[in-house]
């Protein structure tokens, strides 16, 4: 098939996140399909922005970058960026359809407003229209950020969401527990298919990249002190509940534990200020590291932490990329969550605690560290086996294409 994949924030190994569009498209190309990725040339989640506007070929995928203004945060600048991208796609629709002749058009930009231009492209090409759901908008900004349901942006998202559920031929959701909600918004559930996030076996088949000297030195110093290492790899944002992790570090400040973080995000400066102000000298932030170094970092940990806020939106399920990496690395996971699903508990790959209960998180961490190395290794191997069985991109890409066909 010829596939048009609209993803505003699409990334690649050259540019950083988002990786899911790249991994799915690469598998489709390997299966003989043609994929053109339509993406903005500026995204807040990428570590590097594309150097040009127009076509770029990456691992057989045709990336077409569209000019969009840079922005910071979630204010008016981001709205202008979204508008510029959608406007550029609308203007280029006829050319794109002529060049690609798609049989499938996928709208997959986190926010739902790309459904209108995707519908236009699908109708012009007489192609199947697919709506891929990352998060539930406008419910996510309403429940996570306190946005009013009557805010113009929330109303626009709601209109787009209803349009997508009505007009899409197929709806693919990363979240597993969305059936009742989507039905309440008008979706015929016969259209719905669940395709979660996953990992690429290729990334784990080769020898992992060596850690930078600075990160390696922090880990070596902790080991030399005879202390356990608890790690976090990912974004430093409010949804990641890193304040709770700092609260646990403060509660366990006299325990033989070192805390090592890699990543970056909007909350970085505030969190680093808090670490310094509270004298949490066993908490080390090492900055972002290349994706190729993540397996090496995770392999050096005794326990990996992932946390969430306690918010109702997670009743529909969670699909975090970094949790798949944690489990694939074979490291036991401390998971602070209350959600519709829990891969850690399903796999027996660690311990799960309530998301905002600092004493419970500290106690669960101590229980994990009191286990023998062999018991922790067995937990990690169960997690790895679970991901290999259910969350590899060759499997997920095939499920996605079968849904489209």
Automatic annotation (TrEMBL):
InterPro entries: Glyco_trans_4-like_N. Gene3D superfamilies: Glycogen Phosphorylase B. Residues 16-198 form the Glycosyltransferase subfamily 4-like N-terminal domain. It comes from the Bacteria. CDD domains: GT4_WbuB-like. This is Glycosyltransferase family 4 protein. It comes from Ideonella paludis.
